[in-house]
Every structure is written in C-alpha cells, then in structure tokens.
Sequence to fold (293 residues):
Amino acid sequence: MSTIVEKLKEQFTQGNNLNKLIYINVGVFVAMLIVNMVSFLITGNAATFKYYITQWSALSSDPFTFVTRPWTLITYMFLHADFWHLFWNLVILFFSGKIFLEYLGDRRLLTVFLYGGIAGGMLFFILYNISPAFTVNAPLVGASAGVVAILVAAATYVPNMPVKLFFILEVKLWMVAALAMVTYIAGVTGANSGGHLAHIGGAIAGYFFVTSLKKGNDWSIGFYNFLDKINSLFKAKPKMRTVYTAKEKRTSTKKNTTADQERMDEILDKISKSGYDKLTKEEKEFLFNFGKK
Fold:
C-alpha cells in the first residue's frame, strides 16, 4: 500500500499540470466516496456529511452565501455530482489538454483552467441574479468551465488541426469546439442551465486568453507573478540581498520573445494551410520548445 502511495506521490510531483488536474479531481471524488461510506455507517444516510461539505465547497447563486464563502469560486471546480459527470469532464480535459500542452505549454494550461473556472462561475452567479428566468438559488459544481476553456483555447490557437471525433470521423478542431458551444447554448434553457452558463463563461475566457496571447499579452505571467508573491509570504527573507540590473539583457530577451512569437505564427500558418505533417524537423522542434515556455 505504501509503495502505491509513493508511486502516486512521485507521479503527481513530477507530472505536468494536466496530470495534476486529473489526479486532484479523481482524488477529491474518491475522498467524497469515502465520506459517503463513513456517513452511511455512522448516520444511516450516505448523503449527510456530503451535504455539509457541498454547502461549504459548491458555488452558490445566493449573494449572501457567495460573499461569506468566496473560496467556493475555486473549490466548486473540483467537486462532481456523480461518476459520469467526472468521467466526461476528464475525457475532454485529457484530449484537449494534450493538444493544449503541445502548442501552448504546461504553465498556461493551469492558468486557462483556473481562469475558465472563475469566468464560468462568475457568469453563472451574475445571470442567476439578474435574469428573471432564474428564481431559485442553485449550487454549481464541476470542472466543466475550466475544461471547456482549455478546449476552446486550443481550438482558437490551432483551429485547423485535424482530430478524430469519436475515434472515427476526422474533423477540424474548431468544429469540435463549435459543436460543443452549440450544445451549451441550447442547454441553457434545459434542466442544467447553471452548468451550461458556466461552460459558456469558460469558453469566453479560453478564447480571449489566446487572442490576447497572439497580441503579445500573456495572462499566465500575471497569474504566476501572483503565485510567486503568495509563496514569498511564507519564505524566510534573506539577510542580504544583491541588487542586479541588466537592462540590456531584458531588452534582448524581449526582442527574442517577439521574434519567437513571429516564428510561431509562421509555423501555425503553415499548419493551417498544409497540416502538421508538412512541418520540417526543425519546425517541429521549435514548436515543441515554444510550448514549454
């Protein structure tokens, strides 16, 4: 048992953000199953403990609850209603995430997932409070908004990339994203209105992340700068600090970044016109290395 735990711990710490997101979502789901079992054995009702956990972790459309539990804008992304809810989210996350990693890199994947989840949660909350169509408060759970953000971001960046739909029909990636969006828009009038609103919010975040990136604005930089500030609060400050200024080096780095982005745009244009297989070995290596930045 300890060997299995050590293996999982090693894979989690050394894996990319895609694997970590999958592990976290599966881990939370398994933990909730254990909670249900304990709840059943103690109270006779499997949902007793789950109810209280959901109350403090799901995103509520009620303004007072939302204001007093702001952390739910993040925690709701890692709760799922049932096995199939989790399963389909992870299937889409895995396949769209693999494409995302290849072109946009590991650091940006986590950023888009969280930005998409936050955008989806906020659109759900706002519309549930201003639209007369929604008269009953509802909780929101699931990673769908973040997952859709990754799918749409990848489709926006490489729209003409060929993919297998249901492992049979070859279509362009943008067609998959477009079909998903039509389904979400149609679903707003159905039973899962809140979930589909969150999907749309995530899609909007994914789309604008990539369009902003193509203009030279990488939103993931601000996200990781924020994480660095948080981490610095928990680190001991060194007694001595060396101040180093390298203006010329920073200028050179900025120029290199711009040149790399232009080279990347040329390769993407080539993929759109001729397909990925037509790239040279050097172009494929550049594409792979660019995705790691």
About this structure: Strands lie at 59-60, 139-140, 162-165, 169-172. The longest helix spans residues 247-274. DSSP finds 13 helices and four strands in the chain.
